[in-house]
Amino acid sequence: MAGAGARGMLSVAFDMTPEHPEFAGLREEFFTNYEACIHQRTKVFPGVDALIAHLSQASIGWGIVTNKAARFTDVLVGATPLFSTAGAVVSGDTTPHPKPHPAPLLEAAARMGMDARHCVYVGDDERDIVAGKAAGMRTVAAMYGYLGTQTPAGQWEADAAINSPLELLQLLSAP
Q1: Bridge partners, residue 141, by sequence
Q2: Mean per-residue pLDDT for 57-69?
Q3: What are the chain's domains?
Q4: 119: closest CA among 98, 133, 99?
């Protein structure tokens, strides 16, 4: 259910739509519990720590763009020391439009003082690739991620695909 958000999880767990009279209350209860516990079992994918170390050593900036609301993103980023070197953190409610709209990616690039055309966006959902392309960025499908879509990742039209985080270093060094 990763990527489907609270609506997707509550729909499956309670077999109800957002129009159900109890949905809003259950959603807020879920959000409160999620916010309190989000950092307890969350782990980065294997190799992300080494990737970030390499990027930092090479003075290559990186950022986080997520569709999670800031109330969750801020808790998670604050509880994960590895993320302290992110040049930008943009949440799903930072801009008027979440991904697949390009606004969050363009906001991250602007915060980092980067031209979007010089950025690479790595994502594990089709909406990430759509957003990256719309922002004018080079796109990379993270085949090790959640792959939260019904469209096979090979059909997302990403510029490249990687099977582990460290493979990104090879792509970054290629012309």
Answers
A1: 123, 161
A2: 96
A3: 5-37 (no CATH), 48-173 (3.40.50.1000)
A4: 133
- Here the tokens at position 155 are 């059909």
Structure letter (DSSP) for residue 25: H
Asked if 97 contacts 65 with a C-beta cutoff of 8 angstroms, the reply is no
Sheet holding 160-162, edge to edge: 120-123, 138-142, 160-162
Token pair of 105, please?
Answer: 């990616």
**Verdict on whether the full-model pTM lies above 0.90:** no
3-state DSSP: the chain helix, strand, coil percent, rounded to 5?
45, 10, 45
- Report in angstroms the alpha-carbon separations of 83 from 4, 8, 35, 73, 119: 24, 27, 18, 11, 18
Strands 138-142 and 120-123, how do they pair? Answer: parallel
Residues 73-77: contacts with CB under 8 Å, at least 24 apart: 75/35, 75/38, 75/39, 76/38, 76/39, 76/42
- Say which DSSP state 142 is in: E
Alpha carbons 88 and 166: distance in angstroms, whole number = 21
pLDDT of residue 149: 64
The C-alpha torsion from 93 through 172 and 163 to 2, rounded to 10°, is: 0
